[in-house]
Amino acid sequence: MKTKDKLKGMYACSEAVKWVGNRSITRAWNECQVGTWMLWLAHNLHNYRNKPLNKAAYTNIKRAIDQRNTGLSPAERVRKVVSAGTIARAFNKFTTY
């Protein structure tokens, strides 16, 4: 299943689905500049019934978003604490609702 199709099944906003286009989840995570989209994805991966994203990774993402005065964008802060590989593994375990 393509990344954008899986995101549609997760009820991602149309802007995010359009932006993802044909990107893989790894490429999308590495290129995304919208920290709130990244937090949304992590939240959904963490709260789904089989919790493919563990609590520690999710907590680190929330903390990274909340950090201020680091000189980094929220997206850059998130990428520092959770790798694309971690997200890709969780995303691949996720089955849509």
Number of helices: 7
Radius of gyration: 12 Å
Number of domains: 1
Q: Per the principal axes of the C-alpha atoms, what is the gross shape?
A: globular
Query: By helix and strand content, what is the structural category?
Result: mainly alpha
Describe the main β-sheet briefly.
none
Q: Could you report the average pLDDT, rounded to the nearest whole number?
A: 83
How much of the sequence is in beta strands? under 5%
Q: State the end-to-end CA separation.
A: 14 Å
Could you tell me the number of beta strands?
0
Tell me the series of helices and strands, N- to C-terminal.
HHHHHHH
- List low-pLDDT spans: none
Q: What level of helicity do the residues show?
A: 55-70%
Explain this structure to me?
- The protein is mainly alpha-helical and 97 residues long.
- The chain has one domain (3-93).
- The protein is built from seven helices and no strands.
- α4 (35-47) packs across α6 (74-81).
- The longest helix is centred in the middle third of the chain and has 13 residues, at 35-47.
- The two termini are 14 Å apart.
- The model has no long low-confidence stretch (mean pLDDT 83).
